User: What shape does this take?
Amino acid sequence: MTEIINFIGTHQEIIFFIILSVFVGIEVIGGVPTVLHTPLMSGANAIHGVVIVGAIIVMLNVDANDYVALSLGFLAVVLGTLNVVGGFVVTDRMLEMFKKK
Assistant: This one.
């Protein structure tokens, strides 16, 4: 328990920044009209390629015996890849709607 309290005390600014960014993100997304939600989210999902690159970089710098960090990095790569592919699939489906038949 003392380790958690020490971690929070040491990283207080980062934790505050993350909590503040969550609230700002909720307000920004909440203000988007329903018509624009799908196109914006499909584009945002495609940007998650940064998550994939970041997870790979972190995994390269982790000790080979740290299975927890490697597992979390692998999970981040898999989920980020699914998000990117899903964003492109949604964008492709939207663009198909506008093609002439």
The chain has two domains: 1-31, 35-101.
